[in-house]
Amino acid sequence: MQQKKIYTVSPTRLSMAYLEGFVQKGSALYATDDAGGGKHLVILNRFCSYEKETKWGRFCCKGGLPPNSTLRIYAFSCDAKPRQAAELNRYFHDSSVLWSEKLACFVRDGEQFVGHEDVLLYNLTGEYLWIAVEVEEGIRRSETKDAGVSRLSDMRLDTQGDNFLWTFPEIYQEEGGFFHRYLSIFSSIYQDMSEQIANLDRLLDIDETPVPFLLEFAGWLGFSAEGDFPDEEMLRRLVKELYGLNRIKGTKEVIRRLADIVLGARTCKQLLIIERNRLEGHIPDNIRATYQRLYGSGMHDVTILVKHGADERLHSQLMYLIRQFKPARSHIRLVFSQQCSSLDSYCYLDFNAALSRKGHARTDRGSRMDGTVFMRSPMQGKAD
Questions:
Q1: pTM of whole model > 0.90?
Q2: With 0-12 CB in 10 A as exposed, 13-18 as middle and 19+ as buried, what is 261?
Q3: Where does a domain end: 128, 145, 161?
Q4: Helix count (H) and strand count (E) of the chain?
Q5: Could you tell me if 86 and 225 lie in one domain?
Q6: CA-CA distance, 216 to 221, in Å (whole number)?
Q7: Do residues 93 and 119 both lie within one domain?
Q8: pLDDT in tens, 262-283
């Protein structure tokens, strides 16, 4: 019985494929707008089993296609010497050769499938195998906003391996017959189920588990991650640190850790956490209202100053986290601030701009030094 082999189309293998009207992003292909006639093509680099007369099994992929689009899969296999296989591979990857000429090889000596993302290659035997996938869009994306972008991902190939057919008497083992094709449905389901069971341990790996499991793990640790507030990378890092964050919940340190997750370590170093009840000193009447809007007036008010450009999404993400870890009864203000401009440079004064008044003060009389302060020596005059 032929031993089963599985070939995954990794980003490295995909980078060696021949592409027309597709662009690679990781292990997926996305359609571009420059495809002539709305056709997109990928010819994968040759698969080699290193065994003569290999019986190929199943090829599958995941496609996200616009409405009225057509997916075609072509497969061609043969036994050949390595040099001949290399020459044929170069031929399929030669951009000067028209697709219609290459297609003739697949149609004449291979198999073709229309409208299926999961196909059986039981009629193909040979040491080398080539697969081409063609997408023909029925609606141009420029014609409608809802057409979407054609996408191909999760491509995988295997050889026949252990099949239900071989458990029956030899009289029923007619390859490619009706009984064989009928059993292949249950065989494929069984193989997929067996693979999922064998990889159950990956579901507990925070770096690889699907996002729905991440949300479930967060719930186990008392964190609600509803909606689309966190992106996937942020959510994975948060779940990894949730146990430690719960142990310091309600402290100033937990706010710093959350800011590090959302904003990054560099921005977090320039973060200030100001507690209203710890501020001291006299507040002049002319800035009292502004002072209270920024720092609050109650003993439970806390202001977080972040040296970062205003970003509504980052503000929402960080506040969503802080509300679940902040001290009880506290009121949090999150303020994003940018580097100030000077009037002798090219600057734009928007609605947040203000000009401070020039005044005189003495440092030994408890004067409050706010805003921009210039110090002069006694030889030049009074201190500003």
A1: no
A2: buried
A3: 161
A4: 10, 15
A5: no
A6: 9
A7: yes
A8: 877 766 677 788 888 777 776 7
